[in-house]
Specification:
By secondary structure, the protein is mainly α. It has helices spanning 11-37, 40-48, 57-69, 91-107, 109-120, 126-129, 132-164, 177-194, 197-206, 212-217, 219-233, 238-270, and strands at 82-85, 173-176.
């Protein structure tokens, strides 16, 4: 059956398209999750639990950088005073399943974007439909950069902070595997989605829901929120806080620039 035009589609037709979008995306995620199951040993031992070892690349980078800048050597991570334990009978099985699904979602993100693009493309102009490849590439690139930023910056800093924080010497840090995996997944996916902000702002500006003036007006509030987040997840030194803050500020500034370009192009078309 031929696909209907946008003007011919009813509300139920749109729901049907959305349903198939979700079905195809879910199938893709499950297929990739099955693939990651066969390399789960590497995913857990090398990737997920990598930040629990003092020789993780981020810790060594900050240690070398702090020595070059003349900061105190106590910034260097020499030990991780905590253990990770499983406290639920089905805990490790659940962790394995949901970690594979999360990995499938991350790997399948470009395909999900392609499905989203096909869903929204009927509402776009012909000239905008030609930018499908650019949309998929730029969105995927931003997402994967955000994932890497979350993994190599946010996760190790968070792990180091919570591992060394204690209210008393009497209390020993023993984290559940669910809690640790949750921190890793949340940090990685949240950063990946945050780096999608320029793409989100593009579409919100196209819809008239956001303007450059609005984004610039609330810029100071965005800066405060970013600084608070950076202060929470980083050790108490200026270098690490700057490393976390600058990319987030650049993403916000890029969003404002994109919003300005969209508004400028719309004014040209209307004028």
């Amino acid at each position: 059956m031929a696909k209907k035009n946008l003007n011919e589609m009813s509300f139920l037709d749109h729901l049907e398209e959305l349903r198939w979008l979700l079905v195809r995306s879910t199938v893709a995620i499950l297929i990739l999750a099955t693939f990651t199951f066969f390399i789960s040993d590497y995913i857990f031992d090398v990737i997920i639990f990598g930040p629990t070892t003092p020789n993780f690349v981020t810790y060594r980078f900050f240690c070398d950088l702090s020595n070059q800048l003349g900061f105190a050597e106590n910034i260097c991570v020499t030990e991780m005073p905590f253990i990770i334990q499983n406290v639920n009978m089905e805990g490790q099985i659940n962790v394995l399943i949901w970690t594979c699904i999360t990995a499938g979602f991350i790997l399948g993100f470009p395909f999900i974007l392609w499905e989203v693009w096909k869903f929204i493309s009927p509402a776009l102009y012909t000239t905008e439909k030609k930018h499908a490849k650019l949309f998929i590439f730029s969105s995927s690139l931003l997402f994967f950069i955000g994932v890497l930023f979350g993994y190599f910056v946010i996760v190790p800093m968070s792990v180091n902070f919570f591992a060394t924080f204690t209210i008393s010497d009497v209390v020993k840090n023993q984290f559940s595997v669910d809690s640790y995996i949750g921190l890793v997944k949340t940090s990685v996916i949240a950063c990946g989605l945050f780096f999608e902000l320029p793409i989100i702002i593009y579409f919100l500006t196209k819809l008239g829901l956001v303007t450059p003036v609005f984004l610039r007006k609330y810029w100071k509030y965005a800066v405060i929120i970013i600084l608070i987040v950076a202060a929470i997840v980083t050790p108490p030194d200026v270098v690490s806080q700057i490393i976390v803050t600058i990319p987030m500020l650049l993403i916000y500034e890029l969003s404002i620039l994109i919003s300005k370009i969209v508004v400028k192009n719309q004014n040209k078309l209307n004028g």
